[in-house]
Amino acid sequence: MSSMIDPIRIEQVLQGKDDTVIALPGEPIVNIDAVTARRKVNGYIGLEVSTMMGGTAAALVYSKGRLVWRVPIIFTTPLDGQLGVVGVVDVDVQTTELLIPPNLEVTLQANADALLKTLPHSPTG
User: Fold this and answer.
1) For residue 9, which of 22, 124, 66 has the smallest C-alpha distance?
2) Cβ–Cβ under 8 Å, residues 92 and 70
3) What are 32-64's pLDDT values in tens digits?
4) DSSP states along 53-93
5) Into how many domains does the chain fold?
6) If 68 and its partner were Cys, which of 15, 80, 90, 94 is the partner (CB 3.0–4.6 Å)?
7) How confident is the model at residue 102 (pLDDT cuts 50, 70, 90)?
8) Which is more confidently placed, 12 or 74?
9) 3-state secondary structure of 15
10) Interior CA angle at 32 toward 27 and 37, to 5°?
11) How far is it, in rounded angstroms, from Cα 57 to Cα 49?
12) What would you report as the CA-atom Rg of the chain, rounded to the nearest whole angstrom?
């Protein structure tokens, strides 16, 4: 079942800090809600990176000239539960596109390894 929301529209020109136009009057600025953005990220992370990682509550932020849902990626183990945030994935609120940073998988894995080393039962901890 697809979770569609009514687009949020603006009444005046919405500009970022650097005077970049984010949206024009009558134009939708949010075409995806936080829950759907998180689900999209979870699908990508689960298929492409690891089933031991997933998104948590998204925050609406202005980044690099666009509004995005920023979804923190949490690393979890069966024994220890949630260990912490290992990275973020942004979702463009207008296009609903996942904005995957370069080397995301490498970064997430390195951060997860660092968290594992802090555990008392870790072979290297």
Assistant:
1) 22
2) no
3) 899 999 999 999 999 999 999 999 999 988 888
4) EEE---EEEEETTEEEEEEEEEEEETTTEEEEEEEEEEEET
5) 1
6) 90
7) very high
8) 74
9) strand
10) 150
11) 19
12) 17
CA distances from 49 to 10, 22, 40, 54, 86 (A): 37, 31, 14, 10, 12
Q: Is residue 6 predicted with pLDDT exceeding 70?
A: no
Mean pLDDT confidence for 89-110:
94
Domain ranges, residue 41: 8-117
Which of residues 123 and 13 earns the better pLDDT score? Answer: 123
Largest CA-CA distance found in the chain, in angstroms, rounded: 58
Q: Is residue 124 part of a domain?
A: no
pLDDT for 66 equals 82
Token representation of residue 20: 């970049």
Residue 35 lies in a domain: yes
The answer to whether residue 2 sits within a structural domain is no
Say if 123 falls within a structural domain: no
Q: Are 51 and 29 in contact (CB under 8 A)?
A: no
Cα separation, 16 vs 66, in Å, equals: 8
